[in-house]
Design goal:
about 325 residues, alpha/beta, Rossmann fold, Elongation Factor Tu (Ef-tu), domain 3, 2 domains, six-stranded antiparallel beta barrel, 16 strands, about 35% helix
Length: about 325
C-alpha cells in the first residue's frame, strides 16, 4: 500500500473505489466496509483507496477533538493490512472545512479517478456537510460515479463506532472495547524514568519485574484509572505479561501526587523481564481491568496488593493465550 499526503500524488492506474473517513481505531465496522470495498474493487480491476484526515476535522472546525484511539501512523498500518492499494492522508485545514461538496467531489474525480464511493448511511462531506448521500447520488448520476451505502456493523445490538469504543475505555470496560475493535486496545509510548522515590522504585523488581513509565503521544486516549492485565511489546525484546497502573494516584506516591497534578500516569510492571527499556518504544495491549484506582498508606500495603494484582494478571493472561 502506498501512502500519499496530497490527492495529486495518488495517480491511481485505474478507476477507484473510495472510502472516506477518520477511521479512528480502524474498528470492526471500518474493516467490514473497507474489506468489502477492496474485494469489489479488485474484482473489477479497479484501485481501492482510503482517504483519511490528519488532524481530526474537529480541530479545523474550532471544536475540542476527541481523544484518539490511534495515531495517524498506527491508523495507516492497520489500513494497510486490509489490502488497500493507496491511502491518502489529507491535511484537514479550515480551507478544507469550507470547501463546497461539489468542489471536493470534483477533486476526487480528477485526482483519484473516482468510480464508486463507499460510505455509511450518515456519511456527508463538504462545507456544512452539504454532500450527504442523496446529494452525492444525484451528483454521481451527473458525473459518472456510483455511491455504495453499507449499513453500520452492530455488535451486541448496538452499532460499532469510535465514540462507543472511547466511552467503553473511559469507563474501564475492556471487554466491550475489545469486542468492538476486534483486538485489544493498544497504547504505545516512549519509556521514561519512573518519577518515584527510591524505596518505591523497588516495588516492581520485588514483585516480578521492572516498573517503567510510558508517555503516550499527545491526544491519545488513556483508559480509565485503574490496574490492568496487559501484554507489553518491546520491539526486539519480545512480548511479556505486564500489569499496568493508570491514574493520578500512582501505585506509588509519586511527584504527581505530591505536587497536586492530575495528569494520569501510565506505569507498567513487566513480568519475567530484566532489561533496560529507557527511551525505547513500548506498546501495551489491554486485556482485562483488575480493579479501580487506589492509594496505599504504606509500602507493605502496596506490595501486598501488587502481589495479588500480579497473580490475577498471570491467571488471566495464561487463560487468554
Amino acid at each position: 500500500m502506498r501512502i500519499v499526503y496530497d490527492m495529486a500524488q495518488a495517480q491511481p492506474p485505474a478507476p477507484s473505489h473510495l472510502a472516506i473517513g477518520v477511521f479512528d481505531g480502524v474498528h470492526r465496522g471500518h474493516r467490514q466496509l473497507i474489506t468489502w470495498m477492496v474485494k469489489a474493487a479488485h474484482s473489477t480491476n479497479c484501485v481501492a483507496i482510503a482517504l483519511t484526515f490528519d488532524p481530526h476535522p474537529a480541530v479545523a472546525l474550532g471544536h475540542e477533538p476527541p481523544p484518539l484511539l490511534t495515531t495517524i501512523e498506527e491508523r495507516a498500518e492497520l489500513l494497510a493490512a486490509l489490502g488497500l492499494d493507496i491511502t491518502v492522508v489529507l491535511p484537514f485545514t479550515p480551507a478544507t472545512a469550507r470547501t463546497p461538496a461539489t468542489d471536493f467531489v470534483e477533486a476526487l474525480i480528477h485526482h483519484l479517478r473516482l468510480a464508486e464511493l463507499w460510505a455509511g448511511p450518515d456519511f456527508a462531506l463538504g462545507h456544512r456537510r452539504e454532500g450527504d448521500i442523496p446529494f452525492l447520488r444525484r451528483l454521481g448520476a451527473e458525473r459518472g460515479f456510483t455511491v455504495h451505502v453499507v449499513e453500520p456493523l452492530t455488535w451486541g445490538e448496538t452499532p460499532v463506532s469510535s465514540s462507543r469504543i472511547r466511552a467503553a475505555l473511559k469507563a474501564g470496560d475492556i471487554p466491550q472495547a475489545t469486542d468492538c475493535l476486534g483486538r485489544p486496545y493498544r497504547l504505545a509510548g516512549i519509556v521514561t524514568p519512573l518519577p518515584s522515590p527510591p524505596d518505591w522504585r523497588k516495588v516492581g523488581h520485588s514483585t516480578g519485574g521492572p516498573t517503567v513509565n510510558i508517555s503516550p503521544p499527545p491526544g491519545r486516549l488513556v483508559p480509565a484509572p485503574g490496574v490492568y492485565a496487559c501484554l507489553a511489546h518491546a520491539g526486539q525484546l519480545g512480548t511479556h505479561p505486564a500489569v499496568t497502573n493508570i491514574g493520578t494516584h500512582s501505585t506509588s506516591p509519586s511527584p504527581r501526587e505530591q505536587q497536586g497534578h492530575e495528569t494520569p500516569g501510565v506505569e507498567v510492571c513487566l513480568l519475567d523481564f530484566d532489561g533496560d527499556l529507557y527511551d525505547q518504544a513500548l506498546a501495551i495491549d489491554f486485556i482485562a481491568r483488575l480493579r479501580g484506582e487506589r492509594a496505599f498508606p504504606t509500602l507493605n500495603a502496596l506490595v501486598a496488593q501488587t502481589h495479588d494484582d500480579i497473580a490475577r494478571a498471570r491467571a488471566i493472561l495464561t487463560a487468554t493465550r
